[in-house]
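Tutorial, part two.
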Amino acid sequence: MEHRYFPRVEIPLAAKLYRNETLLGTFMTRNISLEGMFLETGDIALARNDIIRLQLAILQEEYLIKGIVAHIGYGGIGILMIDATFFNLIKAQRPSITNLLSKMRCQGLGQKLDRML
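Running the prediction step on this input gives:
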């Protein structure tokens, strides 16, 4: 049973995955929602409820996200963000979400995020 409040959008982004202070690797997101994401990790030594950190670069801006492994399977891990939703994270670090979406639209990502928001 899914407990999703926000729709997922397929956006591939490179993300560095850390557990404690150890870099586990750089992986691609399969999809992102305003509260979590799916990361294509293949088989990886993580367990459900592990606390992780992600480092993402979006339009030359670095974002650090704290999350919890919500599920494992389908070639990766589902992550629930526990510091802030993706929307709040971007909004807090950008003066205008509209400005960010405009920049992303130029790179082909904005339409997907428009539908999400």
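Residues 14-116 form a domain with the Thrombin, subunit H fold (CATH 2.40.10.220). In part three we will examine how such features are distributed along the chain.
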